[in-house]
């Protein structure tokens, strides 16, 4: 269920755009941030508010790799394997993350802490290989840097859990 605070935020966001449908992606991002993924309820609510059919909202979700229809781990790790990252070890970084976490592409660890995805491009070619964890970017990756980051996130995630 979407919170009243989120619905109020939707109103403020929509008011910023001359065409309501232009607010679809920001609304989807805020909904995903609140509930952890884009639910059917969020799709219906957004479609109603921006006056489009739900399929038009679903099409936007399919286009943007940062939007998800299923719950993700607390830390969603996206590893770029596009050309620049590929040439500088992106596939090896993805494989290292997979082995370290014990999960593959579009999977989540049993404790719900980590999700892993291979993505096409993060726009960080100069710092390849690169990855994104939620909204934070990491560049010039090595297995050692990844190990340290995963341990830090694991520690932070354990501290914040009830």
Shape descriptor reads globular
Structural classification: alpha+beta
**Any idea how many domains?**
2
Rounded average pLDDT: 94
Major sheet attributes: 5 strands, mixed
Main-sheet strand order equals 2-3-1-4-5
**Number of helical stretches of at least 4 residues:** 7
CATH superfamily caption of the largest domain? Glutaredoxin
CATH architectural grouping of the largest domain = 3-Layer(aba) Sandwich
Query: Would you state the CATH class of the largest domain?
Result: Alpha Beta
Write down the secondary-structure element order: HHHHEHHEEEEH
Short description:
The chain is α+β, with helices and mostly antiparallel strands and 162 residues long. The chain has helices at residues 4-15, 24-35, 40-50, 54-63, 83-87, 90-101, 143-160; strands spanning 75-80, 107-108, 114-119, 131-133, 136-138. Strands 2-3-1-4-5 form a 5-stranded mixed β-sheet, with helices on one face.
Walk me through this protein's architecture:
With 162 residues, the protein is of the alpha+beta class. The protein has two domains: 4-63, Arc Repressor Mutant, subunit A (Orthogonal Bundle), CATH 1.10.10; 75-160, 3-Layer(aba) Sandwich (Glutaredoxin). Helix content is 49%, strand content 12%. It has seven helices and five strands. It has helices spanning 4-15, 24-35, 40-50, 54-63, 83-87, 90-101, 143-160, and strands at residues 75-80, 107-108, 114-119, 131-133, 136-138. Strands 2-3-1-4-5 form a five-stranded mixed sheet, with helices on one face. α1 (4-15) packs antiparallel against α2, α2 (24-35) runs antiparallel to α3 and α3 crosses α4 (54-63). It is globular and about 45 Å long. The two termini are 22 Å apart.
């Amino acid at each position: 269920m979407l919170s009243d605070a989120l619905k109020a935020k939707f109103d403020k966001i929509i008011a910023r755009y001359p065409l309501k449908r232009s607010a679809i992606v920001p609304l989807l991002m805020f909904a995903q941030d609140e509930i952890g993924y884009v639910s059917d309820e969020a799709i219906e609510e957004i479609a109603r508010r921006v006056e489009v059919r739900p399929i038009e909202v679903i099409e936007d979700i399919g286009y943007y790799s940062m939007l998800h229809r299923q719950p993700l781990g607390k830390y969603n790790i996206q590893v770029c394997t596009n050309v620049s990252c590929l040439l500088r070890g992106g596939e090896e970084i993805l494989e290292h993350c997979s082995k370290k976490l014990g999960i593959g592409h579009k999977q989540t660890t049993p404790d719900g802490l980590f999700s892993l995805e291979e993505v096409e491009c993060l726009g960080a070619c100069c710092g390849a290989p690169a990855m994104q964890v939620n909204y934070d970017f990491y560049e010039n990756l090595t297995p050692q840097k990844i190990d340290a980051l995963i341990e830090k996130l694991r520690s932070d995630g354990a501290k914040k859990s009830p």
